[in-house]
């Protein structure tokens, strides 16, 4: 076996998109090329290195040494896409906070699924602010600092107008005329009390829950 044959086999395996059989390699080389011998020599030369020559299902390929596989692990966060119902609910909370679940339903015109609010709470985009000073003492919701960071806002008064909001993907429906952009200092309401320590409505995550069959 010649050194040149070994180099040619090495080059083919390095550039190949997938494992190659002996026949695949032989087709590319001169008729007298000793492919098996070249593979054996390469396997011995790469043994113990960071990259090894391995035979998998009768085909040959270069691969990372098994003991170094941990170096190739990549962790990344997969962004969770909000459902249409969650986007609409988040928009209403952002522009009308502090807002109760009943008020969210009144603006949207459909009954709110608990699962939708649960997702926004779990993602940290929404928080429970307090209880409204009205019959039933309903819980009010507002946005968080994570909401501002996610949408690149310095403060709530920097919330965009309706057209900009839709372009950013935060809003995908036509809301009633009374859905107004707040003015600086116009957010918040005095008619709520803070939640007591440890107090929180029943919480569960229901990713299948939707507000109505149309969503």
Automatic annotation (TrEMBL):
Coiled-coil intervals: none
UniProt-annotated stretches for the region Disordered: 181-201
Compositional bias per record (Acidic residues), positions renumbered to this chain: 190-200
InterPro entries noted in UniProt: ScpB_csome_segregation (IPR005234), WH-like_DNA-bd_sf (IPR036388), WH_DNA-bd_sf (IPR036390)
Keyword set includes Cell division: yes
Keyword Cell division: yes
Keyword terms, alphabetized: Cell cycle, Cell division, Chromosome partition, Cytoplasm
Protein name per the record: Segregation and condensation protein B
Native species: Phenylobacterium koreense
């Amino acid at each position: 076996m010649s050194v040149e044959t070994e180099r040619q086999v090495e080059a083919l395996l390095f550039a190949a998109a997938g494992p190659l059989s002996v026949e695949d390699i032989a087709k590319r080389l001169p008729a007298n090329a000793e492919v098996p011998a070249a593979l054996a020599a390469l396997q011995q030369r790469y043994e113990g290195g960071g990259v090894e020559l391995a035979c998998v299902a009768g085909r040959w390929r270069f691969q990372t040494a098994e003991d170094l596989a941990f170096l190739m692990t990549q962790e990344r966060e997969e962004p969770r896409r909000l459902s249409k119902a969650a986007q609409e609910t988040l928009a209403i909370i952002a522009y009308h906070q502090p807002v109760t679940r009943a008020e969210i339903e009144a603006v949207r015109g459909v009954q709110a699924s608990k699962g939708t609010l649960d997702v926004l709470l779990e993602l940290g985009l929404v928080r429970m602010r307090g209880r409204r000073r009205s019959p039933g003492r309903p819980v009010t919701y507002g946005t968080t600092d994570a909401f501002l960071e996610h949408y690149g806002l310095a403060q709530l008064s920097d919330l965009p107008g309706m057209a900009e909001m839709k372009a950013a993907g935060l809003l995908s429906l036509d809301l009633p005329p009374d859905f107004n952009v707040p003015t600086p200092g116009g957010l918040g309401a005095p008619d709520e009390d803070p939640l007591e320590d440890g107090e929180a409505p029943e919480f569960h995550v229901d990713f299948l829950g939707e507000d109505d069959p149309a969503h």
